[in-house]
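Subgroup meeting minutes
Present: P.N., E.W., G.H.
Scribe: E.W.

1. P.N. recapped why we're keeping a running log of single-chain structure predictions: easier to compare across weeks, and new members can see raw inputs and outputs side by side.
2. G.H. added today's entry (250 aa).
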Amino acid sequence: MKTPSDEARKRLIFALDMGEDLEKTLGWVDRLKDHVGLFKIGKEAFTHFGPQIVHGIQRKGGRVFLDLKFHDIPNTVAKAAEGAVKLGVAMFNLHALGGKEMMAQAFSAAQKTAGDAGVPTPVILAVTVLTSLSGVDLKDLGFQMSPDELAIQLARMARAAGMSGVVASPREVSAIRAVCGRDFLIVTPGIRLGDEVGKDDQKRIDTPREAVRNGADYIVVGRPIRLARDPAAAAVRIVEEIALGLAEQG
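Output recorded in log:
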């Protein structure tokens, strides 16, 4: 029988974004696989270790979120999506700013590849606005919208293109949920524990409890677990906050 804690644990993604020794990095899987739902592999880890790290996590019983944020011409991203499916990842992402056609072709390619292999299509997410960007940063880039306005517009486009959901700051979760509906997944980085807010390069951030209460389906956590004195205990604390947030959802 599933408990609220089991459901909350599935929603915690640990950012395994390290480029050190492969076995040392994979040691985090042994340490945390009973406390988190997925392991996120980003550019740092993947450029150091390549597919080996994905396969290593899978051999240890972990599920993988491949966070490479594909952004290129539609055909190139479609081929990358096929490769992600063949790696057996549970989730991967691309940049919504690549456009609706790029997203649609990636989804179609992933779905066909998964169907041919007889496996489920991975969750495919569109990245909206990076959590390190502020409104001032967007103006410097030539955007006339605020981060939340741009994130909502990109989420609408991602839904129309067939994406499973989006990656968005916790500050945009409520608005995206209202526009895109309950069945559209929202994965939220920029998560910090209450005493850590404002101490690093993330600008649009929130606590696990608040992000989930506002409608996030998954939260991504890296440093608050990795730098903790007891990482497993920190993960347990975050799962408890997720469970509270789920109970408080409207």
